[in-house]
Specification:
The structure is a single chain. The two termini are 18 Å apart. 41% of the residues lie in helices and 27% in strands. The strands form two sheets. Strands 1-7-8-4-3-5 form a six-stranded antiparallel sheet. It is built from six helices and eight strands; from the N terminus they run ββαββααββαββαα. By secondary structure, the protein is α+β, with helices and mostly antiparallel strands. It is globular.
Amino acid sequence: MLRGNHTAKIDDKGRLKIPNAFRALVEEKHGSDLFVTSLTGESVRIYPMPVWMAIEEKMAKIPSTHPARTKFFDRVNYFGQTAAFDNQGRVIIHARLRDSAAMSGEVDVFGNYDYLDVWNHDRFVAKLHHDPFTEDDARALAEFGI
């Protein structure tokens, strides 16, 4: 399970050095193949390939003419590409996504159960302030026993 966060760096060639704690867990459970994408372009989402393939299998059950399915694939394919960890534990964030998500220098890498989210630090802090955790959120989670 991927949890918590680590600071990482994206080098001048667009390579993200995945924190060792995350990389070791991903490689041990899923291997080194990845799908790097985003749904909004605000951040980067890194899926181990088996996790991404499970999402594709679920999406395949939705009619190809369903508007939400089309929007989903339009976005993840526009921002997405396959990748793999290199020998130094880095992964390429391609230029389109890197520019859209403001990925340069130090970034925050968050574990989200079975995938990673990568955010520009300032953009993520602004998101936290703009969209605070509310009592409504707490009540919604309470319905699930949290």
